[in-house]
């Protein structure tokens, strides 16, 4: 029995095919202008990679900010529940999940069986999200993927005082003009994101072990800065972007087991 | 201050200032199908508007909402509550006008939109005349400052009631003495004659309305919940304006009968009831999908609202000023936050709520500033708290997408 989870975020969309406890395939696509189109494409690719036909899917659960657009899904569930469920499946001992995505960030306290106990979200401000890194990468003429390495090479982190993406951009321009190295600026940006997310996490209460998921978890500079800000080591899954889709697929599977159609 | 081309403002101004215009509004409302208690409240507020806008015989005193209404009705004064009228304006789609006009008056955008909207409506000359201002210093200090501003701008006297944080006899004595001074001050400045019997009558009327309101509160313990919580968003206006006036009795009688009928018939206003929640602080006064998502789509019933809570003990007509002083100091927003948190827990248990939602209204420090303590208290008792950042006046400051995700996630957690 195959089920699918689809997570449509503001920047990327993921689909994952699950058979019982086994992940048989997954995909990541850009969301683009249409959440529905991204969901279709992500699912198509995930099915191809899994060698599973669409007709073999028994249930689909959609999550993420674009979940309401996935009208072919059997159920829509929030990313809060899906991240908690997905994280618990990967690491059953996890008690806190931090997700930093393209345009939002969230912290979820995870209870028994992967149930969310409490959560906090930032989806109003680009500071503390992947968008912040994208903007700064453009200013510094760096590839997004290499920013983490630049941060780790820094001997010290520049002080980025602003918590607003737009103002931080001007601040970075000033730092460049003052001769501050790109390594130090990137390290400062990573620390700025980490401080902001750590403050949000404190509202929920950070209980270790802590998992770091979402696209920004690939940035080793942010991982290190967040570990410092939280005072806890972070578990980063091999594929941090698919935790939400995995949780959605698990909820789809649970729904099948409970006889929900 | 206003845009002279805005026909809407001129029409409204004319409507409000003319007894004929207000009678027309009353006739229009009477012809619309409403719940019985809504006819009473609409009539009451229109009567109050007529007194404030069109009458020249009785003094009009502007006040924050926590000065006891019994005082006004017992002294023959027409009260005007800018906060209440800002809420009313939002409910008829005038919040944008008020908020934008307040910016032109120099009020910063991070101030509470209730007060900014009131300031804008004042600047647009949509408010009635002011003969004096009065405010309490507790709960919301901005309210007192705004009423003070309005009175000052018109060269009218303003009286601030300094409310102690403690809820004890010394605080009551201190405040009762100020109430006595206030009455003397009004007798001198407004030319009113103080009639103790009239004040005692207002106290009697208040107590009768109070007894009926408590019956409504008891009826609302029923499961399924008989009333829709979103329909109770106007309760703060009723609790702070109607007591001491005969309409208070009529209103709560009608609401009591309506609620009792719903309970008896097993016919709740909200069909889909999966989870019971306690709503803290205000609700959007304008029409918003937020509450219909919560109630109809997700099946969350607002079993009780903090602002519907009648907080004071029965008043003593033999000692009216001490009673009113006690009513002021015993407000749950006054004093330590624990008082509010403990009341929340009592109500959560009484109405069998599985969780609580705090609506953090834009710019309101007095409520949102307490969130750390509130959350800790509720968490200790195993009650999850959802914090929604929004605005009860300005629809442009209420982002439905992010709020939907939070509400859905909260419901998933509770169920």
DSSP summary: helix tally of chain A: 8
Strand content of chain A: 15-25%
Average pLDDT confidence of chain B is 93
What kind of assembly state do the chains in view correspond to? heterodimer
Which runs of chain A of at least 5 residues are low in confidence (pLDDT < 50)? Answer: none
Helix and strand composition category of chain A: alpha/beta
Spatial strand order of the main sheet of chain B: 2-1-3-4
Total beta strands of chain A: 10
What is the number of E strands of chain B?
8
| Main pleated-sheet profile of chain A | 5 strands, mixed
Terminus-to-terminus distance of chain B: 51 Å
Strand percentage of chain B lies at 5-15%
Number of helices of chain B: 18
The biggest sheet of chain B, with number of strands, parallel, antiparallel or mixed sense and barrel status, is: 4 strands, parallel
Order of secondary-structure elements of chain B: HHHEHEHHHEHEHHHHEHEHHEHHEH
Head-to-tail CA distance between termini of chain A: 14 Å
Low-confidence stretches of chain B: none
Question: What does the model show?
Answer:
The complex is a heterodimer of chains A (261) and B (415). Chain A has helices spanning 35-50, 79-90, 130-140, 147-153, 165-177, 182-204, 220-230, 243-257; strands at 2-8, 12-19, 22-30, 57-63, 75-76, 96-100, 105-110, 116-122, 210-213, 234-235. With 261 residues, chain A is α/β, with parallel strands linked by helices. In chain A, the strands form two sheets. In chain A, strands 3-2-1-4-5 form a five-stranded mixed sheet. Chain A has a five-stranded mixed sheet with strand order 8-7-6-9-10. The radius of gyration of chain A is 19 Å and the shape is globular. The two termini of chain A are 14 Å apart. In chain A, 52% of the residues are buried. Chain B is of the alpha/beta class and 415 residues long. Chain B has 18 helices and eight strands. Chain B is globular and about 60 Å long. Classes of the chains: A alpha/beta (261), B alpha/beta (415). At the A-B interface, helix 2 and strand 8 of A face helix 18 of B.
């Amino acid at each position: 029995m195959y089920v699918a989870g689809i997570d449509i975020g503001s920047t990327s969309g993921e689909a994952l095919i699950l058979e019982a406890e086994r992940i048989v395939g997954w995909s990541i696509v850009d969301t683009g202008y249409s959440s529905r189109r991204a969901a279709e494409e992500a699912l198509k690719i995930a099915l191809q990679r899994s060698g599973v036909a669409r007709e073999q899917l028994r249930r689909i659960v959609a999550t993420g900010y674009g979940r309401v657009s996935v009208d072919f899904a059997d159920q829509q569930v929030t990313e809060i529940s899906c991240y908690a469920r997905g994280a618990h499946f990967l690491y059953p001992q996890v008690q806190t999940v931090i997700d930093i995505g393209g345009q939002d960030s969230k912290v979820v306290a995870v209870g028994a069986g992967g149930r969310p106990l409490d959560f906090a979200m930032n989806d109003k401000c680009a500071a503390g999200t992947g968008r912040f890194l994208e903007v700064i990468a453009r200013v510094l003429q760096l590839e997004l993927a290499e920013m983490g390495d630049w941060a780790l090479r820094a001997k010290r982190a520049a002080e980025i005082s602003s918590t607003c993406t737009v103002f931080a951009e001007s601040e970075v321009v000033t730092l460049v003009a003052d001769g501050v190295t790109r390594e130090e600026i990137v390290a400062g940006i990573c620390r700025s994101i980490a401080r902001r997310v750590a403050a949000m996490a404190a509202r929920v209460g950070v209980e270790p072990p802590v998992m770091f998921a979402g696209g920004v978890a690939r940035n080793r500079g942010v991982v290190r800065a967040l570990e410092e800000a939280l005072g806890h080591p972070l578990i980063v899954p091999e594929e941090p972007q698919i935790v939400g889709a995995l949780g959605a697929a698990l909820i789809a599977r649970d729904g099948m087991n409970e006889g929900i159609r | 201050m206003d845009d002279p081309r805005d026909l809407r403002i001129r029409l409204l101004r004319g409507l409000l200032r003319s007894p004929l215009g207000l009678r027309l509004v009353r006739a229009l409302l009477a012809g619309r199908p409403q719940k019985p208690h809504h006819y009473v409240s609409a009539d009451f507020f229109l009567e109050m508007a007529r007194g404030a806008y069109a009458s020249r015989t009785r003094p009009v005193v502007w006040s924050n909402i926590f000065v006891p209404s019994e005082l006004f009705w017992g002294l023959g004064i027409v009260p005007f509550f800018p906060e209440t009228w800002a809420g009313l304006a939002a409910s008829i789609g005038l919040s944008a006008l008020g908020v934008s006009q307040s910016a032109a008056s120099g009020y910063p955008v991070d101030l509470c939109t209730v007060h900014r909207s009131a300031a804008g409506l004042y600047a647009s000359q949509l408010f009635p005349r002011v003969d004096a201002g009065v405010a309490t210093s507790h709960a919301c200090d901005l309210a007192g400052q705004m009423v003070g501003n309005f009175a000052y701008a018109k060269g009218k006297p303003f009286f601030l009631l300094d409310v102690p944080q403690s809820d004890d006899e010394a605080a009551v004595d201190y405040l009762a003495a100020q109430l006595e001074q206030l009455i003397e001050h009004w007798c001198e400045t407004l030319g009113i004659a103080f009639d103790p019997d009239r004040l005692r009558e207002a106290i009697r009327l208040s107590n009768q309305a109070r007894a009926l309101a408590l019956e409504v509160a008891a009826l609302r313990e029923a499961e399924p919940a008989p009333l829709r919580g979103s329909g109770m968003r106007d309760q703060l206006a009723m609790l702070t304006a109607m007591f001491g006036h005969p309409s208070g009795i009529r209103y709560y009688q009608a609401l009591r009968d309506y609620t009792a009928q719903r309970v008896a018939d097993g016919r709740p206003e909200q069909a889909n009831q999966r989870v019971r929640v306690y709503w803290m602080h205000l609700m959007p006064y304008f029409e918003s999908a937020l509450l219909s998502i919560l109630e109809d789509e997700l099946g969350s019933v607002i079993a009780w609202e903090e602002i519907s809570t009648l907080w004071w003990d029965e008043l003593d007509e033999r000692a009216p000023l001490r009673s009113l002083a006690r009513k002021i100091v015993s407000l749950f927003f006054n004093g330590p936050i624990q008082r509010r948190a403990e009341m929340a827990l009592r109500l959560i248990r009484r109405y069998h709520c599985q969780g609580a939602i705090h609506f953090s209204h834009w710019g309101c420090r007095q409520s949102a500033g307490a969130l750390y303590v509130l959350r800790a208290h509720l968490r200790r008792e195993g009650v999850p708290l959802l914090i929604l950042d929004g605005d009860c006046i300005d629809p442009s400051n209420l982002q439905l997408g992010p709020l939907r995700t939070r509400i859905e996630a909260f419901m998933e957690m509770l169920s």
